Amino acid sequence: MTERADYGFDAPYAPALMAFGGLALLSIAVTRIWFTPGEVHPVRAAAPGLAGLWLLLNAITFIHTTRVGKFAVWRELIDELQLAGDEALLDVGCGRGAVLLMAAKQLPRGRAVGVDRWSSTDQSGNAEEVTLRNAALEGVAERIELQTGDMRGLPFDAGTFDVVVSSLAIHNVAGAAERAKALREMVRVLKRGGRLTIADIRHTREYASVLADSGVRIDSTRSLGPRFWYGFGPWAATRVVTGRKL
User: Fold this and answer.
1) What does the CA dihedral 77, 82, 84, 88 come to, rounded to 10 degrees?
2) Which of 9, 81, 117, 170 has the highest Cβ tally under 10 A?
3) Which fold has domain 76-245?
């Protein structure tokens, strides 16, 4: 059997807590209905069960997004970039390589560089050696380069990259001022005319404002739809900001 690359789970504690809470609430509802029939109003007896089902739906949606949905959406986002195949691309917060390696497949004459702090809190099993192994399994090991670094001080010269992408990473930086530093760094390492695509679950209006003030023409800010929900509802949607450096 051919071994496949594994990209782990985003924020693995989140669906685990959702599932645990959902099962606990369902257990409370079943206990009330089964063991104390007539002693508790039916609505009050069933209420924890409904809440539990909602939490389980959140967990299922979250897991589907992290294992299936985000890949389908990012394939479309990379297609929108219309890569010629010889670009230098940077993935900020590359993790285990889901976006980085997908882009590398479109760069037969180019280079895909990933930078990360390798936190396993934000993604299960996140480590440089895991990303390198995934790259080998995807057949793009010769097209990628990995760096350990902080997005607020990227270890690259100004104007190095034709494209900068980031998925679900910038929101992990605490504080609007610190996130602005990271965004300005992405603009700094981008060539004039270079393109930028950022997908995140929070702060995207903030990102668009900072980028616009930093010399980026914003082309699009939009929701990425149900395939990229990290919960059962549009309030848990991932949004994307795209633009071009002037």
Assistant:
1) -40
2) 170
3) Rossmann fold (3.40.50)
Residue 9 reports pLDDT greater than 70: yes
**Helices vs. strands in the chain: H and E counts, helices first:** 7, 7
Section 149-174 average pLDDT: 97
What would the two tokens of residue 47 be?
């209420």
Is the pLDDT score of 84 beyond 80? yes
Would the pTM count as exceeding 0.85? Answer: yes
3-class SS of residue 237:
strand
* Half-sphere exposure of residue 7: CA atoms within 13 angstroms, side-chain side: 20
In whole angstroms, what is the distance from residue 246 CA to residue 233 CA? 36
Nearest to 90 by CA among 232, 172, 243, 198: 198
Q: Would strands 88-92 and 190-200 be described as parallel, antiparallel, or unpaired?
A: unpaired
Q: How confident is the model at residue 66 (pLDDT cuts 50, 70, 90)?
A: very high
Q: Is the dihedral angle over the CA atoms 82, 85, 88, 93 positive or is it negative?
A: positive
Q: Is the dihedral of CA 144, 74, 94, 177 positive or negative?
A: positive
Whole-number pLDDT of residue 39: 63
Task: Specify burial of residue 71 (Cβ count, 10 A radius: 0-12, 13-18, 19+).
Answer: middle
Residues 239 and 232 sit within 8 Å (Cβ to Cβ): no
Please give the Cα distance from 104 to 34 (Å, whole number).
Answer: 56
